[in-house]
Amino acid sequence: MNKRPNLFSHGTSELSQDAFICWLAEWAYPVYKETDKCLYEASIGFIRRIYDLHKKTFPAVIKEIKITKQFKGLDILIEINGKQAILIEDKTYTKEHSNQLKRYYAEVVKLEKYKESDLLPIYYKIGNQSDYSAVIDAKYMLFTRKQMLEFLQENIDRGVQDQIFLDYYFYLREIEQKYDSYKTLPLSEWKGEAWEGFYEELKQRGIEGQYGYVANPNGGFYALWWNEQEDNNCKQYLQLEEGRLCFKIHVADKDRRKELRDKWSKALIERSHNYSFNVEKPRFGNGRYMTIAVVRDYRVGDGKGRIDIPGTIGVLGEVEKLLKMVDVQ
Question: What is the pTM of this model?
């Protein structure tokens, strides 16, 4: 049990996170330098990081800082010396939607107070996210949980002792530990964050796919899908459904679904005998997207019940080769 309660274990919403960021940014106001020099310098350092992300020159001095919450829907607008503006869209476990990032940016442009070159948009996310293409397309710079933890740790090492600052650090560190838990937990004990952390590592090691939670009537699961290929009849791809690996097809032609499902399943199973994994026939469905073969557990253990990442990557590489070799007409 923790030695003391943590404010952020009770305030887990994006509003609580907004409050922390606004509170931290406000410490950059010169009047607070004598109140807590370490926290003042941490605040300056936080804002400097945002300037560095945008490759902008940091102001020689911050004389004025104006912080607005929920500006036209944008979580936080921080105006620096009346000359530049930081736009922060803050997410915990949700993601951007409905073109919101571009809309918020346009609302700040409409103020006609700042040139676009003086706008510094930031997308701050504490949960994992598979795809940031919409963020990048909207010209927002990504500020991740890992980057925030690094910033917080550096300033704790430099002497920050404020309990709100420390609470936020411990809160994020606990989240980080959950995402990293796949490295140390027995394979049978992985939970949601462990799966997302594992999928993220696979992406970092070259698996070019997307991951996320897939809801269904049975309760849903965390999945990663990749390696899509296509012929004249259907698309084929691979999908991890937590501990199970699925070979899947997407068939647009309703009249050919059963035929192609049966042919692909038979071909994959017949061609799989020389591989290190066992490919089995699943319970068939008959829809646009169908599982045609499965590997019950593709993960390689390290002999102590934990994951062997290089060994598992090797299996996934073999699976990719198998799918590429199979040709069904």
Answer: 0.91
